Amino acid sequence: MAWAYTLALLFFSALAAAKDLYKILDIHPSASKTDVRHAYKKLSRKYHPDKNQDPAAKDKFVDIAYAYEVLSDEEKRQVYDRHGEEGLKAHEGGQTQHANPFDMFSNFFGGGYASPQTRRGPTSLTEFEVELSDIYKGASIDFMIKKRILCDHCRGSGAASDKDIHTCSGCGGSGVKLVKQQIFPGMFAQSQTTCNECGGRGKIIHKKCPHCDGMKVVDYTAHYTLEVIPGMPEGHEVVFEGEGDESPDWEAGDVILRVRSRRDKGSWRRKESSLYWRETIGIDEALLGFDRNLTHLDGHEVRLIRKGPTQPGFVQKIEGEGMPLFENRNLHGDLFVEYNVVLPIQLSPQQRRKLSEAFQTESNHDEL
């Protein structure tokens, strides 16, 4: 039975090791190849040493590259899932040589990290409405965006394989042709024009990629999480860098969400750090006063007390019960409660008794 115990230990250690690479890319073990690629794109940009000055960023960047190298290769991934990292080393003949993470990044993004001169793709701006209670408390909101990404199969070349890409014989790969035109007898002018055989690309594709039909990009639904910070201002813009439509011709632009609170009729209203609420009271409460609780956006109770008459439209200010301040969440703005007095069609016996007792008491005081 000792061999069975040893085998079980090896099995569970392999599973634990297999989870590590998925954890590095922050993806589930069942993630698709597209999800793996998307995770690498997001994390490699975030931890690239040219952008992230954290001393630990370089090691993180190397780990991300290794995880992507394994999980994006179907054969390596299968070995890794079954036997862990030790099994992968055995599969590779004991070699520990891995791809250069910076070369991998450069190849992935088509030339390396974007410089200011790199052509940027379009940036999308979306108005994103959330519940006011989410802005008051803070929340993590999942959402999806449909966009286009580079084809996983051809990596944006549009060809079935590298062998199907050939240099254009019409222009010699330059993308342009020299055209001679006779102006006068014996006199010619020479001009350049875009090659009509390759469309100026310098390459001819003999066989299109079967996955994207030569379009170089495919449709993809990406999943994101918006982190709503308590007290976030109306119209605050959250940028998801480099998450726009992809193309081999540009560096992907950004996705920007402009966050606003949803306006529901008859509900809470917000103006900067102040909150507004309209409370309805009866004629007896308006005349005699009241003591009641108001349930706030996060569920805690705010005590509303009025002693004596309350005029219709009267606004009561309650300090420190407004929105949390975005710059300092330990501080809050104020809450303004406007009172709406409802006159009944007829008085109930209870209301009659309360009013009668109140006016009777008042009359007795006057006589004294």
From TrEMBL:
Transmembrane stretches, start-end: none
Positions of CR-type zinc fingers: 138-221
Keywords for the protein's UniProt record, in alphabetical order: Metal-binding, Repeat, Signal, Zinc, Zinc-finger
Record-annotated CR-type domain positions: 138-221
Signal peptide: 1-18
Ranges for domain J: 20-84
Protein name (record): DnaJ-domain-containing protein
